[in-house]
Amino acid sequence: MNIVHSNAEGSDGRSFRPGLLAEIWAHLVDQLNISPECRAYIKAAIEAPSRLVRSTPRSMCGRYPSKKVGVTIGFESATLELPIILGLELDPDVFLYVDQPPPIKLTYRIGGRMRSYLQTPDFLVIMKSGIWLLEGKRLAAVEKRAIDDPELFVLQDGRWICPPAERAAQELGMSHVVRTEANFDALVLSNQLFLGEYLRADLDLPGYDDALAAITSILGCLARATIRSVLDKCGATVTLDHIYRAIGCGDVAIDWQACRIIDTEGCWLYRDTATLHAYLACALSKDRRQGPPVNLVRLAAQEQLRWDGQTWKILSVGASRAVIECEGRTQTMPLATLRDLAHGGQLEALDTAEADTGVESPVDAILRRASRTDLETANRRMEQIRPYLQACRANPKHRTLRRYVSDYKAAQRKHGNGFIGLLPRTAQAGNRKARLVKSVVQLALDVANEHLLNPDNVRLKIGWGFLADRCKELGLPTPSYPWFTKFVNRMPAYQVARARGGDKLAYALEPRVESTELALAMAPDRAWQRVHIDHTLIDLETIFSNSPEKAGRIWATLAIDHFSRRAVALSLSYEAPSYRSVMAVIRDCVRRWGRLPESLVLDGGKEFQCVWTQTLCARYHVTIIYRPAAKPRYGSQMERPFGTLNTNLIHVLKGNTQLRKNVRQMTNAVDPDNFAVWTFPELCDLLERYFFQIYDNLEHRELLMSPRACFETSVAQSGHRPMHVIPYDRNFILATCPSPRKGTARVQADGVKVNYLYYNAARLQAHFGKDVEVRYDPGNMGVAFAYIDREWVRLTCTRHAKTVWGLTEKELLEASTEWRRRRSAVEKTRLTDAALIKFLKEVNADQLMLLRRRQAAEERKRLMEANVYPADWEDWDEPAGTTRLGSSEVPAADICEPSVEAAKPSMKIETLEAY
Q: Where is the Integrase catalytic domain (predicted)?
């Protein structure tokens, strides 16, 4: 799998599946006979995308690793363009598709004037039948644009087209297609996403032949059966993975539009496609007269019937004819015709609730607007006057009861319902006419837009002062300050907060986006379908293991499964988030589970958008989805566990940094540095127990079960999917190791030079003078790897192995940066390995490097204890004489405590007098 590199410096181009381009060009030349302009356009599209995909405030972009074309395909919407990509990936008629081809020029008329601009299509698709330029658009956006620009989008034969784009595409010998949500069946798309890798023809599943024989044997006798019944009858021979594979490759048939495949008790398996079509035809050809009996349809006056989607009302019935009313029109129809329609099942009787035409009666409108208190009051009044509503009873003596009876009878004459006359009308009291003239209200709106709805954050009192001043100038009545306050508060809260405080401040008030059927179909419905990764700085100060000195705060990188909310990987480090943090958490995921998720949701951090993260995901066919910037709701599955971690655990520990939120009010007596007791290894063990034992088994209020139970249930229902298994071995560790910026290094007499250091091995000299691919482990700069003789060979830093063994890349970068700072401007342009090693020896015991080295030592100790390297990894023993920072090398003054501790005020409450 190859990844597309596209940036401001240039593009390395796309590297497609071997032999694909030759097949494409042969098809284009021999069968489609394309023009030179079309050839040039396709060549430019194949070389590199014309622009980078990016997220919008309400969409998530990403990259999909395509097995069909062998490169990653960018998309700008995970709920529209990603489904389009999945459809192209599974379509057998599609040879090749690429994202972001060169822009085309659209020209159309708007308002009597010609308008022209360049538009970049979403995809270029080369099919057996022709070449498409494909554009994905939201249906709501297309409908709105069609109203504003009638010539840009046109609805033709039930589908939307873009005539200007079609003309531009025809000039190149192509076709233009617009895809919206209406072009997708949400249920079919959900089933395709559920099957995933099972739909690929090249999938090899162990034991599939025997399982298929057992499945076809059962279906040969029954013609069709549910997935659950097949599993029960076949026993251990057949698993869900075998059934899903049989569905994916077409060995058995299902009705994709009937139900979800995950419903094993409702999803039917058919022997073949012909059997499926036969059952569907039988269902459509059932005799409808076997439905409701004819006597359920009463042909009498005031009865309401439904025929052909319309509601009929029978006004009167004679000996041979009936008068009916439909949509305000009255007509006469023979009774024989009505009886024939009833016998044919085309005429249905309607209940009173079902016969509602959608027009609300006045009585229903009054009752709907009444509050619970009003209804209780009306019920009480009804009980009081009930005895006086009888014709023979005299009027009540109390004036109030006489008024209730009068209101009841008046409402009965007016609305046909006396109860609504007993409803209190206190809400209608008062003068409801506007007392301010419209010019004053408009002036208040102008003042609010000019002075209040801007980042200046002018107070309401000052804004009212501007309004009062203008009213005096124009001779208009001045509204009161309370009125102006209510006027501003009635304005849309989101627009006001956004204008005064910006998008982030108003984000909590932003209207939620309604989920479409397509978006719901793309939502994860099983474990491992989507995993979120993010970082957080733990609110806790730590100390070193061998001394009480402050070590600093720790960064945690966590991976959470979207569907089950289960933590699947964890990595801790003193280093700020970088691509090394991402590689570490991915390593931990494979070490724990032996697999990676099908898609990763990441934020816009540089460590997530670096080439190493994208290359690793492309190699293991993991789709990358990027969250919109400053939109926490898109990552709520990730953000919520961080908040729960702080409130339930971190803020209970000694040395937590809650008080630093108000740093001006914090004193030295309560400084978290004075109470830090946790070390790096101890905190690692604590967080491991919390996420993988405690949090894993707590009931989740949204799932109504624990994350572990949800995860295990999902895996049992969706199959174990062995095609995603990744062995945690030497090859995987090498895949997570980055290479230098150039990617290769020239073999010299001293070996290859990587990051200012020389590495060598006995087999390397056979390739003297050649450029070889190299990689290094950011966790131990004492080793590197070179790809020679079709395998990766381990190299060691022979010149300075004792000094750099176990040195992390971060330490090396800090050392080189400090070296450049200390040297003169003349020496800044040249940095040799000898000079760097000399500097490292100089600062080995220096206070500048002491903190970083000791932090790295804490992390290294934890990694060695956790056995993060696989069993087949080469010997990692340190060279003899390697310099290490132990407790004996720490200056005594740094660890010695003062003989007399300064007196501190007591923080305990000794008496209860204050209460």
A: 520-715
pLDDT at 309: 63
What is the distance in angstroms between the CA of the first residue and the CA of the last residue of the chain? 71
pLDDT value at position 896? 34
> Is 314 a residue whose pLDDT tops 70?
yes
The DSSP element (H or E) to which 362 belongs, if any, is: helix 362-369
Is the torsion defined by CA of 539, 544, 550, 552 positive or negative?
negative
In the structure encoding, which two tokens stand for residue 264, read together? Answer: 């094993």
Band of residue 288 on the pLDDT scale cut at 50, 70, 90? very low
Tally Cβ neighbours within 10 Å of residue 474: 10
Helix (H) or strand (E) segment spanning residue 776: strand 771-777
Task: Quickly name the fold that domain 438-508 has.
Answer: Arc Repressor Mutant, subunit A (1.10.10)
**pLDDT at res. 897:** 36
Please give the Cα distance from 775 to 806 (Å, whole number): 16
Do residues 101 and 135 lie in contact, with contact meaning Cβ atoms separated by under 8 Å? no
Domain with CATH 1.10.10 in the chain: 438-508
pLDDT band at 570 (very low <50, low <70, confident <90, very high): very high
Q: Tens digits of per-residue pLDDT, 459-510?
A: 999 999 999 999 999 999 999 999 999 999 999 999 999 999 988 888 888 8
CA distances from 630 to 57, 62, 308, 374 (A): 8, 17, 51, 46
Token pair 């953000």 is found at 639
CATH 3.40.1350.10 residue spans of the chain:
6-184
Phi then psi dihedrals of residue 459, to 5 deg:
-70, 155
DSSP characters for 664-719?
GG--GGG-GGGG--EEHHHHHHHHHHIIIIIGGGSPBTTTTB-HHHHHHHHHHHH-
The burial of 600, by beta-carbon neighbours within 10 Å (0-12 exposed, 13-18 middle, 19 or more buried), is given as buried
Q: Domain 6-184: which topology? A: Trna Endonuclease; Chain: A, domain 1 (3.40.1350)
5 pLDDT above the threshold of 50: no
Question: Is the model's pTM score more than 0.90?
Answer: no
Statement: residue 350 has pLDDT above 80: no
CB proximity list for 9: less than 8 A, separation 6 or greater: none
In angstroms, the CA 833 to CA 826 distance is: 17
Which class does domain 522-724 fall in?
alpha beta
Q: Is the dihedral of CA 202, 205, 206, 207 positive or negative?
A: negative
Identify the CA nearest to 868 among candidates 583, 588, 568: 588
- The tokens of 614 are what? 């994208």
Phi and psi at residue 250, to the nearest 5°: 85, 15
